[in-house]
Amino acid sequence: MGNLQLKEFVRALLLMALCAAAGYLFFAQSLAYAIAAAILALILVFQWFNRHLWLHKQIDEFSEAVKYRDFTRRYAVKKTRNIENQLYASFNRINDAFKDVSAKREIQHQYLTKVINMLDSALIFYHADSGKVEWVNDAFKEMFETPHLGNIKGLKKRREELYDKTMQLKIGQQHIETAHSSKGRIKLLIQVSEFETENGLYRIVMYQNVNDAMDETENRAWHKLLRVLTHEIMNSIAPISSIAETLHGRLEQTAYSDELEDVKVGVHTIKKRSEGLLKFAKSYRLINKVDKPQFTEIPVVQLFENIYNLLEPSFIQKGVDVDIILKNTRATIQADLHLIEQVIINLMLNAMEAVKDAENPYISMSALEENGRVQLKISDNGEGMEADIQEQIFTPFFTTKKTGSGIGLTLSKQIMLVHNGNIFVHSTPQKGSTFTLQF
C-alpha cells in the first residue's frame, strides 16, 4: 500500500473512531466530550468533502481542456507526495502524450497536404449527406478558379456543369467528361470513391486533366492517317494530272471541231481538279512537317508589336479596334519566334473573320503570368462558338468557313504541342472567343 492510500486509510479509521467515540460519550452522558468528538468528525468530513470537490473540479477543468484539444496548460508539481501533486503529475503526463500524438498527426497532415497539393489532379473531399467540404487541394482551386468552397453545393453556382456531372457519378467507375476550367474547355477523367466513418459517409472525387495526353494520342493518330492519305492521294492523282496535262497539250495542237472542243474542256477540267487535289494534299503535309522549335527568349511586347504592325493595314481597312494588354512589359517566353508568330497571326486572322459582323469589332492580345508561366491570349467580341464546335475546331479537315481548309487551327495546335505547350479555347455564342496559348 502506497503512502497516499495509507493516509486515506488512516483518515477513514480516524473518522470512524470519532463517530464511535461521539456515540459512546453521548450514551455515557458525557455530552461535552460527545459534542467535541462530533465537531471533530464534522471538521474531518468537511475537509474530506472539500478536498474531493476540489479534485472533481480539477478533473472537470482538465476534461474540458481535452475536449477542446488544449494541451498547453502545465501543472506545477511540488516535491511532497500528496494527492494533488500526484493528480497534477498525471495531468502533465497525459498532456505530454497528447502533445506528442498531436505533433505526429500535424506532421503527417502537413506531409499529406504537401504531397496531395503537388499532384496535378484536382481533389475534393466532402461529407456525402451534408455536402460539407472538408478539404480541396491546390490543383482544384487553380483548375476551377475556386479559392474557397464550404459546401459541394457551392460548386453549382461557380461551375454548374461540373457540379451536375459530379453528382451523377457512379461510385468506383471512371468517366471522361468535357468541362470548362481555367485553361478553357478540357477533357477530364473523373472518378469518385466513398468511405464511412463514425461521423458519416464521405466522398473523394478526383478530376484528372487528360486533355494533353488525349491531344498527344489523337495527334499521333492524325499524323499516321494524314501520312497515309496524302501519300495515297498524291500517288493516285499525280499521274492523272500529268496525263491530263499531256492530253490537253496535244489537243491544243489538233484541228478544231465541236467534238474535240468538248474533249478539251473535259480534259482541262480533269487537269484543274487534279491540281486542286494535289494542292489540297500538300497543304496537309504541313501538319506533319512542323519544324523542331529553335528556342530563344522572346520579349512578349516585341512579339505583339511585330504582329500588330504586320496586320495594322487590315485592322484599319476592316475597322477593327485592337488592344495590346501587358501587365508586365518585361515578360518573355521561350519559343521559336517564327512558329509562334505563325500561330498568333492565324488566330488574329480568324478573330477578324469572327468580328466582321460585330457592331463594334474588337480584338485584344494580352499576356499574363500564372505560377511563373506566361499565357498569351487572343480575345474577340465576335459571334462565338457553341460547345460542340469548340470540341472539334482543332481537328484536321474541320472548318466552319465556306472557303476554309481546316488546317489553320490544327497547325497552330501542332506548333504548341512541339513547344511542350497547348492551346485552349473558351467561347460564348454571340459574345466572343478567347484562345489561350499555354507554354
TrEMBL record:
Domain spans labelled Histidine kinase: 228-439
Catalytic reaction(s) noted: ATP + protein L-histidine = ADP + protein N-phospho-L-histidine
EC number: 2.7.13.3
Organism expressing this protein natively: Sphingobacterium corticibacter
PROSITE patterns named among the record's database cross-references: HIS_KIN
A Pfam family reported for this protein in Swiss-Prot or TrEMBL: HATPase_c
A GO molecular function held by the record: protein kinase activator activity
Segments traversing the membrane: 9-27, 33-49
Superkingdom assignment: Bacteria
Keywords: ATP-binding, Kinase, Membrane, Nucleotide-binding, Transferase, Transmembrane, Transmembrane helix
Enzyme class: transferase
Protein name stated in the entry: histidine kinase
Any Gene Ontology biological process: osmosensory signaling via phosphorelay pathway
InterPro entries: BphY/WalK/GraS-like, HATPase_C_sf, HATPase_dom, His_kinase_dom, Sig_transdc_His_kin-like_C
